Amino acid sequence: MTRTKRLTVMAMFVAIGVVGAQFIWFPAGVARAYPVQHAVNVIAAIILGPLPAVIIAFLIGLVRNMLGLGSLLAFPGGMIGALFAGILYRRFGRKGWAAAGEVIGTGFIGAWFAVPFAKVLMGTTFAAWFFVPPFLISSATGAALGWLVLARVRQERLIRIQ
Predict the structure, then answer these.
(1) What value, to the nearest 5°, has the Cα angle with vertex 119 and ends 117 and 123?
(2) CA of 107: how far to CAs of 20, 26, 29, 128, 132, in Å?
(3) Tens digit of pLDDT for each residue in 121-148?
(4) Pairwise CA distance, residues 104 & 156, whole Å
(5) Which of 5, 57, 60, 100 is the least crowded, having the fewest Cβ atoms under 10 Å away?
(6) Between vectors from CA 36 to CA 85 and to CA 161, what angle results, nearest 5°?
(7) Cβ atoms < 10 Å from Cβ of 75
(8) pTM of the model as a whole
């Protein structure tokens, strides 16, 4: 994939993540679940790899926060989930492992990273297990959505996955 094509695809994923979050969300405990972010993480990790997926997750969180539409907790959850999705896909070469990496990375590890992040930047003091249920619900639904989209796209042969 050429550099220009890669950057264009990354920009499209950022746009899908920002706009999709405004239309598809649901309450998950004390937070809102944004499954489009996690679906984009899985798809980007498979198509582009771990580093571009992390950059996309960061940019989605940044744009949403700059527009006042997101939470600072989008950074640790989204970026760690994208990283794990990309690493597990590279290691095992299966879409299911990318989805599992997103759930593990966001649902557990991202939730644990959210505790000091929330304390330092948001002034809240919650235990790690406070963030796990909403992060887990959001990442599991989004990872399933991303996996289903990729299965359908692959079936229609609309893209060639590396």
Answers:
(1) 125
(2) 20, 16, 14, 11, 6
(3) 766 766 666 778 888 999 999 999 999 9
(4) 29
(5) 5
(6) 50
(7) 21
(8) 0.88
